[in-house]
Amino acid sequence: MKPMSLSLKAGLVISAVMFAIAALAPVIAPADPYQTHPAEILAAPSGAHWLGTDQLGRDVFSRVVHGARTSLLVAFFVALIGVGLGAVLGASSALAGGWIDTAAMRTVDIFLSIPSLVIALALAAVLGPNLVNLTLILGFLGAPFMARVFRSEALTLAQQNHVRASALLGAGFGFRLTRHILPNLGPLFATLVSTSMSSALMVASALSFIGLGAQPPTAEWGALIYEGRNTIMYEWWCAIPAGLAIALSATGFILVGDGLRDWLDPRSSQA
Amino acid sequence: MTTPRLDVRDIRVGYGTGPDRHDVLGPVAFGVDPGEIVGVIGESGSGKSTLAFALMDLLPPAARIGAFDVRFEGRQLRDLSRRERRALLGGQIAFIPQEPMTALNPTLKAGSQADRVLKRHLAVPSATRRRRLEDALERLHVREPRRVLDSYPFELSGGQIQRILIAQAIVLDAPLIIADEPTTALDVTVQADVLADLKQATLSAGRSLFFVSHSVGVVANFCDRVLVMKDGQIVEQGPTRAVIDRPQHAYTQRLIGALPSLSQPRTRLPVEAWT
Amino acid sequence: MAGFLLRRLGFMAVVLVCVTLITFLLIELAPGDTARLLAGPQASEAAVAQIREEMGLDAPLAARYAGYLADIVRLDFGTSVVTGRPVLTEIAERAPATFELMILASLIALGIGVPLGVAGAMHRGRAPEAAARAVSIIGASAPGFWVGLLLILLFYRTLDWFPASGRFTGTPPDAITGFLTIDALLRGDWTGFRIAFAHLLLPALSLALLELGVYARLVKNQMLGVLGQDYIRVARAGGLNEGEVLRHHALRNGLAPIVTIVAASLATMLYGSVSVETVFGWPGAGRFVVQSIFKLDLPVVMGFAVLTAAAYVIANALADLVYAGLDPRVRLE
Q: How far lies B200's CA from each of B184, C30, C49, C110, C238, in Å?
């Protein structure tokens, strides 16, 4: 096993910390993130409220910490759906070969020529803006690109002799897919999920920021920034911490994604 | 005794630092006289290409040069700055690479790339440069030199590209040509032609040629003197006929003995001899 | 070359038809009565009935799609539910503001990102490479709208150097191009230019950040690949110094694919502009479409989708053409 690079280790630490914060949210921030304190609106950070309160008197620190759960969960599922669906579609296309493969990839090409944002906006307009819809929409929109990547990787696997031999022996499509192809795509899967999580986090929080994702009063980092934006001048603590959380988490995921890719690449030598 | 044009006293090249360090070349010592064709033979990994690139200061950035005592036309190269050494390239030391198909920028026409190099060294107008290049190509038996120079590299054959680079060396009148297995990537028939052209280009102007090859057969017919390398060291050197006919070192003997020959019965190289 | 062009055009047409199909189906399959959706939640029953009549919503699906497609080809994207004016007009009025933003952001991203990437490749293992790497990570992890807020905090609240919202303070110059900065210059209005530019700078910087990082990383990787090629070594062996090697070979080959990346980055700029325009109260098409979504102004949203998809496809096709111009292998095969 190659030694892990410094940036990969750093990325793993950062990501682990963010996930831990999300998991342990009630322990770290016991204050109720939805509890309003009308008497303490827009209070500056203090001993009682570590990051102050927002325009409804809610504890900002608590909202940011609990927001980790929402944001990271959304990012994870968007990545999982996108990469997972893409893996199955891409691998199936490669295994099927022939005109199915060509047709599928042409369709993907057409799809990739359309900026996915406009589709996301159109879908959000039609289906109604909420977090679940957003997660599903972003997940599905990410699948075509992933399908492309997995299909390339799966092509070499599908050509291997033992896979073709198993077909001759009567192994069904599903069998070959799940036993020969998909397990070998594991490293690629892990790398892509990490990288996808960072872009998923960015896009989901951006869409929540404009109001198409998490709806108030949900604590989600993008939504928190939106809530804090009008008071940014004098009550900076409302919007800034959430953005910092996004930046840190995304950095962690990017470092892990890039680091995994280099670590798992059999061709790259030790630095 | 004439002063060698290229006088190599010591070169040592390695990779890695500290405990990971391993030398790939050195110590080596040899000379190349004016008008001489010196061949270097050895198997892959013997360090012969590294030697060629070390002479030109074109080693990969990861390479660590441990020792470098080389005189070129009397000048100690170690005393020159990086820029001064690079300034020697092209005009004083020309290079013919191994793989012609990747030797030129695919997005530029061959002629304009050669012209760029000529422009660096010659203070003559572009029309003159173009004419000299075309003349050189004609003397190297390239048909339609104008069309060849006007083509993109992927439209040309390996032999044509090698001849463009040789023509470049001729026009620049470089006293030393370093050729790194220039014919390995070519068809056998083209090989013979390009070699003949190289020899003619060298002899006609008293140039020296430092010729790296893994083919004993090619070197035997082509070079005046030969260096035999193994594991980064020169195990034997001398006049070609002497080394080929009466090899002194055990490794050279095995190398020569492994050559297929139509007249003598083949001796199979025992496997353990290589280790 | 002609074959290449034809294939590209054909592909473009297919993509655009698919987009119209998607938007059409979305309106049709959306929950709720289609006529109601197109008329808007505020419209009266009579208005809804009229829409149903006008659009022939009782006709079969295929016929309606054909009509929809025909309208789009004639650049008729319907009328806004909110204002009653043609969708195309509404979007076209606000488009220059968004373009101005995107163009400046692209220039900033290219102007900083590309040299950073080149420097990173030329000086591996030293500060420039680390800087390129850091910038690409920050660009990809710091949300543009958040950075925008930080910039407002710093440059407006603390330093009071730049304004925080809108495109202009005072009376803007009369529109020629719709780009306030250009219009001011064209009219010799130096003060006006300064004001317009000051308003433009912070949003453009926020928008540029992500692309900056992408360019730095891609350019660096591309250049590293090029610098490792044989012909670079042969060029050096010919005596060319590093500057010449860079200018004549490395940059030319390394940067050609950048053209295609610039076109692709238009898509990310688009999604970025939506949130950045919101932060800075920038009256562009991005902010407009978001407002339209909340007002359930479907014709605007769908019209925006088709128009932006078309712009993106055309931009990509142009980029491919330019790339073919730079790399002869592409067009001669």
A: 19, 81, 93, 51, 21
| pLDDT of the residue at C58 | 67
A251 and C137: CB-CB below 8 Å?
yes
Domains located in chain C, CATH noted:
32-76 (no CATH), 94-326 (1.10.3720.10)
Tell me the shortest Cα–Cα distance from B87 to chain C, in angstroms: 6
Q: Which two tokens stand for residue B262?
A: 């139509």
The ipTM (two decimal places) reads 0.86
The total of other beta-carbon atoms located within 10 Å of residue A205's CB is 32
Give contacts of C233 with chain B, Cβ < 8 Å: 58, 97
pLDDT at A269: 47
What stretches of chain B show up as alpha helix (H) in DSSP? 48-56, 82-88, 110-121, 126-139, 145-149, 158-172, 188-203, 216-222, 240-245, 250-257
Average confidence score pLDDT of chain A: 86
Q: Do A225 and C26 touch (CB under 8 A)?
A: no
Q: Which residue has the higher pLDDT, C172 or A46?
A: A46
The chain C residue lying nearest A252, using CA atoms, is C141
Q: Chain A partners of C34 at a C-beta cutoff of 8 Å?
A: none
Mean pLDDT computed over C36-52: 72
Q: Which residues pair with B228 in a beta bridge?
A: B41, B236
Q: Measured between beta carbons, which residues in chain A are less than 8 angstroms from residue C138? A: 247, 251
Q: Is pLDDT at C311 greater than 60 in this prediction? A: yes
pLDDT in tens, A55-111: 888 888 888 999 999 999 999 999 999 999 999 999 888 888 888 888 998 889 888
What is the CA B219 to chain-centroid distance, rounded?
A: 12
A266 has pLDDT over 70: no
* Residue of A110, A121, A137, A209 to mutate when probing chain C, most C C-beta within 10 A: A121
Residue A143 is predicted with a pLDDT of 93
CATH superfamily of A59-230: MetI-like (1.10.3720.10)
Q: Cβ–Cβ of A122/C14 closer than 8 Å?
A: no
Helix axes C144-151, A186-209, angle to 10 degrees: 50
* Mean pLDDT, residues B48-75 taken together: 88
User: Distance (Å) from the C-alpha of residue C154 to the closest C-alpha of chain A?
Assistant: 10
Report chain C residues whose CB lies below 8 A from the CB of B103.
Answer: 230-231, 234
Pick the residue from chain C with its C-alpha nearest to B54.
C237
**Inter-chain CB proximity B116 and C239 less than 8 Å:** no
Residues of B in contact with C239 (CB under 8 A): 86-91, 117, 120-121
Distance from CA of A173 to the nearest CA of C (A): 30
Of B65-74, B231-240, C170-179, least confident by mean pLDDT is C170-179
Residue C93, chain B, CB below 8 Å: the answer is no
User: Does residue B72 belong to the interface with chain C, where contact is any CB pair within 8 Å?
Assistant: no
From the CA of A185, how many Å to the nearest CA of chain C? 25
- Give per-residue burial for B212-251: e unless 16+ CB within 10 Å, then b: bbbbbebbbebbbbbbbbbebebbbbbebeebbeebeeeb
Residue matched to tokens 């055009």: C9
**The overall pTM is greater than 0.90:** no
Write b or e for each residue in C128-146: b if 16 or more Cβ atoms lie within 10 A of its Cβ, otherwise e. bbeebbebbbbbbbbbbbb
